Amino acid sequence: MGEMNRKRLRIFQFSCERGKGIILGEDGKKYSFDLASENNQLKNQLALGAEVEFTVIREGNPSQVNAVSLCREERTPVHEYKRNEKGIPPLRPQAAAQGGPRRGDAEMRAGAGNWNMNGTQGRREGGGYFPAEREVPRYIPRDTRELLAESEVKFENYYLRLNKFPLVQNGRKGGAEKERFVVVQHDQRGLLSGTLAPEFSFCRLPEILARREKSILDLGFETLSFTAKPEWRVVVGLGGASVYETSITLHHLYGFPYLPGSAVKGVTRSWIWAEHFAEREGREQEEPGWQDESAQEESGGEKSGQEEARPCKAGQDEGFIRLFGGKTEDKKEIRKGSVLFFDAFPLGNPEIEVDVMTPHNADYYGSKNKAPADYYEPNPILFLTVGKKTEFRFTLAIRKEDNVEIKSGCFAGKRVLEVARTGLEQALKEQGIGAKTAVGYGFMS
């Protein structure tokens, strides 16, 4: 195996099951090793926050490892992290010495040209700190304005920065100035000014993922996780409510972009229906009593029994009902789906990139009396996307007693969670997730 297969990580949870040691690492993955092959002293040292090194001999869920050793280098355990650690500064820093310059004043003055709201007021897009001068936008509450003007506040949470402290820019339309909210600002030449590089390191995404998986396992669920990476960009929540013309889905507590579980479930259901039921349901509506050739051969051209083996409708398929819910066979009650689709979180610090769409016939679409023509002025609209280097972790869960083998229908012989994973992976690869999938956004592999 050699050093190429050695792995080093911090433990988030350790447990013993049937002679096996199970490590839940900070990367959100599980690793299993034989307790008999390791010394008893090591078993007592494997705890939350400890750093270990081992050799991966087989990838899986969990992955099989051996030669487990405790790293001598001491690292701060997860539960001992303090709020004032780098990345989460105190809200009110200590005052600078009287007469001396305040920290960050030079940086703020250098970037003052990026501020624009009634001449001087507005949010500076390029930096993280609010300037020392009282250049606070008027839409901010009074007590907040006073705090911002007195302190050097760093915007760590991108959700709050984008939605509670939006950038304002003046524009001209028909000769009259019109203020509007924008995700990034333009300079006098019409070029983008400032940078858009939100910082997400303080979120500790691997720890959030590991903590969530631990909570799911503690509730008695069987889980299945995998990672997927965008082939290009991903657009999520484009049409959400926002002061901007466009929006993006950000976690309301941590501020990072994510894929909601409802979207993950929806795209899985859509792909499974389109792949296994759409054609047959359409044929049944066009030609009542239609059967596919294989079903006719099995039943000798008769209808008896074939509907149970190969139902035409998704609502009659055992596997589809177990996954997403529906009416029972006797149609007397409705059962809920067994599979839980969790929000897909980034594995590391996600990238936020600015994209643009340019409607050319805005006047035509906005009025009934104007014809589409090339002489209308284009209207560029900026929107935020998740970059292609951002890797997402998808997690599915089901109660152990519900993950049974499907007996009939399109998925006969397969387990429920296996069907859900296959459907989700194929949906991400062939159908995409989020907005603008018709033009190449949202495809993942």
From TrEMBL:
Biased composition annotated in UniProt, kind: Acidic residues: 287-296
Chain segments carrying region Disordered: 84-106, 282-312
Keyword Transmembrane helix tagged: no
Keyword terms: Antiviral defense
Basic and acidic residues compositional bias, start-end: 300-312
GO biological process, one term: defense response to virus
Residue ranges of every copy of the CRISPR type III-associated protein domain listed in the record: 235-444
InterPro entries, A to Z: CRISPR-assoc_prot_TM1791 (IPR010172), RAMP_III_fam (IPR005537)
Name under which the protein is recorded: CRISPR type III-associated RAMP protein Cmr6
Source organism (scientific name): Acididesulfobacillus acetoxydans
